[in-house]
Design brief:
Strand content: 15-25%
Number of helices: 5
Helix content: 10-25%
Structural class: alpha/beta
Order of helices and strands: EEEEHEEEEEEHEEEEEEEEHHHEEEEE
Low-confidence stretches: 293-302, 331-337, 408-419
Radius of gyration: 41 Å
Distance between the termini: 102 Å
Length: 419
Amino acid sequence: MELGNLSNLQRLNLDQKNLMGIVPEAIFDISKLQTLSVVQNHLSDSLPSSIDTWLSNLEIIFIEGNELSGIILVPISNMSNLISLDIAQNFFIGNVPKDLGNLRRLEYLNLGFNQLTDEQSASEVSFLTSLATCKFLKALWIAGNPFKELQNLEHLSLSHNRLQGPIPPQFHDLLSLKFLDLSRNNLSGVIPKSLEALIYLKYLNVSHNILQGEIPDGRPFVNFTVESFIFNEALCGAPHFQVIACDKSTHSRSYSKTRLFILRYILPPIGSTTTLVVLIIALWWIHKPDNLAMPTPIDSWLPGTHGEKIPHQQVLGATNNFAEDNLIGKGSLGWLYSHNYFLNLIQRLNIMIDVASALEYLHHDCPSTVVHCDLKPRNILSDNDMIAHVGDFGIARLLTKTIYTKNNDLGRDWLYGTR
């Protein structure tokens, strides 16, 4: 089926199809075509001079990244429905038509990286001025072209458009610029400090935008007044601009916030992960298979960690003949002497977990909060199953409710335990 027979076709996308030669003439017979995209192919030669007549309904033309050449045809300026035109990365030459301003619906224009010049233009890149009538224009690219006379441009007005995004810092290349009007757009971001290089600039107007940040104070900005910057979002700077002073501590606050974020959200997970990894390695080390030749466990120097029997005489010597000073507790819960180097790593870890669980219960799960007030090794008892218990609540306290003292100080009502 030939393309020319698709008379009702509205969108044609032939991107990256390795097309070669001239643009197929059959495309120009599709009178209802609205979108033409042949990006990144090897199409060559020039566009037909009657493109505006054949494809009068075109809204989008994307021919970027081909090998097309010749001049940009003036008839393109007559395609009144055109919204997007992208001819970048080709070999187009000559001047940009001044009549592009006729494209009143134009929103996107990319002329970048061709061989376009302004050598024969009477008013130096005069097409830029003509684009001021394109009220919907949002994006314009002209980079990568040898506009030799652009540095001689003295007057540039792009006011009363709908330009969006930041002010291009490349404006500092317009070294001869004396008049720059970017007012009444939707420009955002900061005013580029690079504009201080425009030493001949006598008039600047960036009012009625949504700019923010510091107004540069180098020349030529020392000669500008408040009228150049009014009705923006959050500009700051020198007093004669009648704006608020810039907060020089912004960087310090930003650094403090970053440091606080690291301490609050980054370091705790790292610390917990490290502890967990060390614990897993320790557990694996103790319970590793016997057939693996591994270095000596870290607690191999502890007696009782390998199940060997401890002589009675050694126990007597270690506990000073079972002296009362070494006795942690006694009663139905059994007993445990403070010379706990008879315990292996797993047993010690279990005791710590049991004690922590007991404290959690006392502090959070009891009808009234219980504060032990005398937690120490000799008050930890172990039963025959090596389950640790917190004992000796002789000086424990019950935290019941909040009261106010005579001095209206916030206090606590304590209930004291007895031995």
